[in-house]
Amino acid sequence: MAIYYNMVVKTAKRMAWLLAMLMAMTACSDGVVYSNYEHTALAGWERNDTLPFSIRPLKESGTYALDLGLRTSAGYPFRRVTMIVEQKVMPGNVTRCDTVTCELTDDKGKVKGNGISNYQYVFHVSDRHYRKGDSLHISVRHDMKREILPGITDVGISLWAY
Question: How much is the pTM?
Answer without folding.
Answer: 0.79
